[in-house]
Specification:
The protein has eight helices and eight strands, in the order ααααββββββαβαβαα. By secondary structure, the protein is of the alpha+beta class. An eight-stranded mixed sheet has the order 3-2-1-8-4-5-6-7, with helices on both faces. A hairpin with a 2-residue loop joins β4 and β5. α1 crosses α3 and α4 packs across α8.
Length: 233
C-alpha cells in the first residue's frame, strides 16, 4: 500500500460525521477525507490550487494509484493567468507544498490565459488531463522530463508530440515585466530555467501530473473526471 494511500486511509478511519456534534461550521464537520487533506496542507502552505481543482487531482490519483510509483503529485491550473504561480508540487504524505511556480502554456492555447487545448501534433497547444512522469533526457533545453498522457483523445499523444517538462528563459518571472505575460512554449509546460532541474528531479519516474483548464469538452468527456463527478453524486 502506498504511503499516500495509508495517509488517506487513516483520514477515512477517523472520519465519522454521524458521531459529530452539529455545529455552525457544517462544511468543516462534514468534510470528506480529501477536503480534510486540503485543509491540513493549507495550514502549512497558504497558497494552494483551488479546492475543486485539488479534489479533481486527488480523486484521479485514487483511480490511478496502481500505476504510480512516486508519491508526489503536480497540479497545473491553466484557468489562471500565466502571470500567477499556477504549478504546485505537493507531498500529500507530509502534507506540504514543495514547489509553487509560474509555468508556460502552448503559444496557440492563448495569450495571458490558456483557453484552447489540443492533442494534435504540431498544434502548439497545451493538453489537459492526467499524465505520468517518465524518464529524463538532455535536450536543447537541458535536463527535460518526458510525459506519458493517460487520457485517450486528450493527451495520449504527449510522447510522440514531445510534450515534456523543461526549463526556459521565457518562462521566468522577469519575462512578465516586459511582456505582461509569461512566454509561451510549443505545447510543453515550461518552467523557469533556474527551477526546472529541481522540479524534474523531484517528480521524475512515475509521479502523477494533472493539468486543469476550463474546457467543457474535457470536463464533460474525461472518464477520470466523470468518475469523480459520479462519486460525488
Amino acid at each position: 500500500m502506498h504511503l499516500f494511500h495509508i495517509a488517506l486511509f487513516s483520514l477515512l478511519l477517523n472520519f465519522h460525521p454521524e458521531n459529530e456534534i452539529p455545529s455552525k461550521d457544517l462544511s468543516s464537520t462534514y468534510s470528506s477525507p480529501i477536503e480534510s487533506l486540503y485543509e491540513e496542507i493549507a495550514s502549512n502552505s497558504p497558497n494552494l490550487p483551488q479546492q475543486e481543482v485539488f479534489e479533481y487531482a486527488f480523486k484521479g490519483w485514487e483511480q490511478l494509484e496502481s500505476n504510480i510509483s512516486n508519491q508526489l503529485i503536480t497540479i497545473i491550473d491553466f484557468s489562471l493567468p500565466s502571470t500567477e504561480k499556477r504549478l504546485w508540487v505537493i507531498d500529500p504524505v507530509n502534507k506540504l507544498v514543495l514547489v509553487n511556480s509560474v509555468v508556460s502554456h502552448g503559444r496557440n492555447s492563448g495569450e495571458l490565459y490558456a483557453t484552447n487545448f489540443s492533442n494534435k501534433p504540431s498544434s502548439y497547444k497545451s493538453s489537459l488531463g492526467f499524465y505520468k512522469t517518465a524518464e529524463t533526457y538532455h535536450g536543447k533545453h537541458g535536463l527535460s522530463l518526458r510525459l506519458d498522457g493517460l487520457e485517450k483523445g486528450f493527451n495520449d499523444l504527449a510522447r510522440p508530440r514531445a510534450i515534456v517538462i523543461h526549463g526556459a528563459d521565457y518562462a521566468r518571472e522577469e519575462f512578465i515585466s516586459a511582456a505582461g505575460r509569461l512566454g509561451r512554449s510549443l505545447g510543453c509546460p515550461a518552467l523557469p530555467s533556474e527551477l526546472s532541474k529541481e522540479v524534474i528531479e523531484l517528480i521524475k519516474e512515475g509521479s502523477l501530473l494533472f493539468i486543469y483548464g476550463e474546457d467543457q469538452n474535457y470536463l464533460s468527456n474525461s472518464k477520470l473526471i466523470s468518475a469523480s463527478f459520479s462519486k460525488q453524486g
